[in-house]
Amino acid sequence: xxxxxxxxxxxxxxxxxxxxxxxxxxxxxxxxxxxxxxxxxxxxxxxxxxxxxxxxxxxxxxxxxxxxxxxxxxxxxxxxxxxxxxxxxxxxxxxxxxxxxxxxxxxxxxxxxxxxxxxxxxxxxxxxxxxxxxxxxxxxxxxxxxxxxxxxxxxxxxxxxxxxxxxxxxxxxxxxxxxxxxxxxxxxxxxxxxxxxxxxxxxxxxxxxxxxxxxxxxxxxxxxxxxxxxxxxxxxxxxxxxxxxxxxxxxxxxxxxxxxxxxxxxxxxxxxxxxxxxxxxxxxxxxxxxxxxxxxxxxxxxxxxxxxxxxxxxxxxxxxxxxxxxxxxxxxxxxxxxxxxxxxxxxxxxxxxxxxxxxxxxxxxxxxxxxxxxxxxxxxxxxxxxxxxxxxxxxxxxxxxxxxxxxxxxxxxxxxxxxxxxxxxxxxxxxxxxxxxxxxxxxxxxxxxxxxxxxxxxxxxxxxxxxxxxxxxxxxxxxxxxxxxxx
Length: 487
Known about the structure:
This protein is α+β, with helices and mostly antiparallel strands and about 475 residues long. The chain has two domains: about 5-185 and about 400-480, Aminopeptidase (3-Layer(aba) Sandwich); about 185-400, 2-Layer Sandwich (Alpha-Beta Plaits), CATH 3.30.70. It is about 30% helix and about 30% strand. The chain has twelve helices and 23 strands. It has helices at about 5, 10-20, 30-45, 115-130, 150-155, 230-245, 275-290, 315-330, 370-385, 410-420, 435-440, 465-480, and strands at about 50, 55-60, 75-80, 100-105, 105-110, 140-145, 165-170, 175-180, 185-195, 195-200, 205-210, 245-255, 265-270, 300-305, 310-315, 330-335, 345-355, 360-370, 390-400, 425-430, 445-450, 455, 465. The strands form five sheets. Strands 9, 11, 12, 13, 14, 16, 17, 18 and 19 form a nine-stranded antiparallel sheet that branches. A six-stranded mixed sheet has the order 1-2-6-3-7-21, with helices on one face.
């Protein structure tokens, strides 16, 4: 299967635009090419198109005949995508387009993230803007940038730019779910310098790798209790330090803050006289951890291999402090919502751990739908790393989106979903960060809702989107646009 096959899927207007979009490199923070692509798209349709000062693209389209008296609708999706790939995959997100394939009812990518989050939303809006046959009220398409690594597009959108009274955010990942709220978040960055020491004689060098984990979205998937490669690797480092005098040289684990870490590696050495016992203990602990995760992480791999003896190791006091701090740093669900069944209220993802060459860095993302709870957990994590001498900074803070169960557009969506599918939708808040909360600060009177097709494995190379779900979603949004309330 090739990208050409994707274009033949139904609904063709959506998949054609998705294939066009996925041919354009668009990693977060590097959206120049996709901004130009989207601007050219709007201008080619002779629609009012402009790019604001931060890079958001806004395209407006007049109402079709008979729907001029309806409220204007803002259709919103983000242009950027998470750039994750399998270690063995050779791919440059800055210059290459995504290679896709069909697997049964799913569209996937070849060893990378697919970009269905939020590319299917973008492609759907493009199809609506192109159409000459679909009835709709006046439309305003808002394509934001950098949603995945800071939401700077939504944060930089000025008051008064948007004219719509209703916002349809197309960034929910279950086709039977209607989103009415989301979590806010804050990035935590802990850094410090340290002295390196010469490696003493009589040591043996090792490389320990934890990989094969599922990874996934650090908001939507955090409730699953999946393995975090940074935390699992650290269990071996703590055991090796306490029992065999392990001396650490390097750590390289995880990647983006919003992705649960799938891989982590450490280079270290131990006294050569302990190698046999150490290797036996590592094997025993590896089997114990695999047993813990056998149903959640069936592909988990833990590999210990001899390597060149490192010339330098981390100073002993800092090493002990770092290993214990990573062990103590909260990871996973912190509190479930007492108000909404099965909703994670507050969580933290220990996303990135890097140490080597005299510098260390730990990156986390704390999320919560309750601001005070988010502050509490962020301060908990901060305290752990400040106690070991790190400088800890909070950045990229964004608000949650408070549910409005009396929303008029919510009623429209619920009614049409029931008519189309003969069942009730799942109306819920989510633990991911959506741009609705940020946009609502400057547009407090805008009635907002979120929905979308079914996407699995977002933020990981296992990302995939259901073909039948996209058809369901396409039918649903057309029915909604026919029934927008009057102004």
